[in-house]
Specification:
This protein has 173 residues and is mainly alpha-helical. The protein is built from three helices and two strands; from the N terminus they run H-H-H-E-E. The chain has a two-stranded antiparallel ribbon with strand order 1-2. The radius of gyration is 52 Å and the shape is rod-shaped. The chain starts with a helix and ends in an 18-residue tail after the last strand.
Length: 173
């Protein structure tokens, strides 16, 4: 009888051992399955990110209609800007042309009266005036012999002194 009682105890311990092993194996399978799922999620996430990157690259490189549309819009903007600049340049040219015409009229009308008053050609009268102002400033200009004996000496082509802001009237601030 002692043997019969020992046998059920050994069966019981054996069953407990099997039960413990079963729980450990199920827990191990669950842990492995969880790790597989985590790994699959990471791989799926990486794969999805790679797919998004590939799609973006494909659209950027191969979306010709939208690229062409953007190029056409930029061309239209630049053409409008060019037309505006051309209009402004033409208006500026016209203004400068009018001002130049007025200045030429003023110059030639004043120079003809100067020429008539001195009885000399305009260029000689100008150089004589420049020579007179230079000697008044204490500066001397080289004088050349005149081709005509009655005309007197002529000044060299360029005056000996230079004007600070070039020829013509200057404005003082």
């Amino acid at each position: 009888m002692a043997q019969q009682r020992a046998l059920p105890q050994s069966k019981e311990t054996l069953l407990q051992s099997y039960n413990k092993r079963l729980k450990d194996d199920v827990k191990s399978v669950m842990d492995n399955f969880t790790e597989i799922i985590k790994s699959a999620k990471v791989r799926a996430g990486e794969s999805l990110m790679k797919l998004v990157s590939d799609l973006k690259q494909f659209l950027i490189l191969n979306d010709f209609p939208s690229v062409n549309e953007a190029i056409d819009q930029r061309n239209q903007q630049l053409r409008a800007l060019q037309e505006e600049c051309d209009r402004k340049l033409i208006a500026l040219r016209d203004e400068v042309s009018i001002d130049l015409y007025e200045l030429e009229e003023e110059y030639y009308s004043s120079s003809s009266s100067l020429c008539e008053a001195n009885g000399r050609p305009l260029c000689e009268a100008y150089w004589r005036l420049d020579l007179d102002t230079d000697s008044a400033d204490g500066l001397s200009a080289p004088v050349l012999a005149s081709p005509e004996p009655s005309a007197g000496p002529l000044q060299a082509a360029a005056p000996a002194h230079s004007h600070a802001s070039g020829p013509g009237p200057t404005e003082h601030a």
